Amino acid sequence: MAFFYWLHLPSMISKEALYRIYLEHPLIQTDSRKVSEGGLFFALKGEHFNGNLFAKQSLEKGAAYAIVDEPQEDGIGADRIIRVDNVLETLQMLAGYHRLQFKIPFLAITGSNGKTTTKELIHAVLSTRYKTYTTEGNLNNHIGIPLTILKVKPDAQLAVIEMGANHQKEIEGYCRYALPTHGIITNAGKAHLEGFGGIEGVRKGKGELFDFLRANHGTAFVMQDYDYLREMSKGIERIITYGTGDADVTGSIIRSEPFLSVKVSKGIPISRIDTSLVGLYNLPNVLAAVTVGAYFKVNAKDIRTAIEGYKPSNSRSQLIGLGTNKIILDAYNANPSSMKAAIENFARIRGGKKILLLGGMAELGKESVEEHRQIVELIKKYDWADVILVGGDFQKLDHPFRRFENAAQAGQWFRQQPFRDAYFLVKGSRSMQMEKVLDQ
Prior knowledge:
By secondary structure, the chain is an alpha/beta fold. It has three domains: 15-86, Udp-n-acetylmuramoylalanyl-d-glutamate--2,6- Diaminopimelate Ligase, Chain: A, domain 1; 102-309, Mur-like, catalytic domain (UDP-N-acetylmuramoyl-L-alanine:D-glutamate ligase); 318-438, Mur ligase, C-terminal domain (Protein-Tyrosine Phosphatase, Chain A). It is built from 15 helices and 19 strands. It has helices at 15-24, 55-60, 87-99, 115-126, 144-150, 170-178, 193-196, 199-206, 208-215, 227-232, 283-295, 300-309, 336-348, 368-380, 407-415; strands at 28-29, 40-42, 65-68, 81-83, 106-110, 132-134, 158-162, 182-185, 219-223, 238-243, 249-255, 261-266, 273-274, 318-322, 325-330, 354-359, 386-390, 402-404, 423-427. It has a nine-stranded mixed β-sheet with strand order 6-7-5-8-9-10-11-12-13, with helices on both faces. Strand 16, helix 14 and strand 17 form a beta-alpha-beta unit.
């Protein structure tokens, strides 16, 4: 376990005193509109918001204390204002101090694609045997991670923390206060190229999790099929592998329509898992959950039941029926790697009338136009009933497909079409909000 060296509290109150206040009032909120009676309000600020302006309002709504980093007017509630130098750093410090109170496994998950699905599957599996806390939704950033840690209660037996990142040194910073004992990098593909500076930068940034585990006698779960993950994990004290061959846990696809079914051939006695996940690309996510469950000695039957009981939501690999039509809604996010996998998977699905509704991909920097061009070229390799490309740098390319500036315009067109017995793939970056195409 690493020594947590960032324990100074940038304020006039000691970390021990603030922690005692937190233990008495463990409900933390950063949105003054959602403050709980008797909770703590952390007045975060950013480019377009300043929580300091709502400190008094949070106290009036019942907050026990407001933690601020700007002067506040004197008056009612002044004795319940805690002034610090930097509210965000104080929140992260508090999370780190709370983390130090636990001697349980903390499993961190990062990657370019699939980390939220992998996290949800692993949480479902581990929860069959252990009291397990995890990241809610995709609150996986510099605010969400400390909030997740601070929600871990004394009865915790395991914690699963999702870590997102769009630039180097970000994962390293999270590890300083999350102190993971175990870790998974689902993959390192073409995502956030603008911030990471290319694919090698992505691997370096995501690899900061493995760097931490290597330096602190941790355990890594590694997808053996990916040679770059084998290389990135070298030197870690304990490595558990999974994949389609030559791994501690191996598995293969039995079928992929309409949902993914998996056979586990080595590592744990599970002959078949019938998931509610769409897409061949979910095989590594399922195998990761099986592997983690087996490592923590979860019963094989419980592993299978937990994975089969997981239902995707929030526009991730969802199969939706709309009249006689079927829609694969995978619109929570997109990057060149996930877009390519989704298109190729969709092309394999049996069905004569297949329609693509794809939104632009964000945060690709100088590579953006070229990455969009490559997606267009990939689309041209297959026969489609129709292709609709929405927004982003798709608009800068000369292509033969339908184009719309935004999801609202595409949705208006979509609702005017007499589609019957058609299959749709709806995908795009979060900023495109491609799920709005389906709004009635």
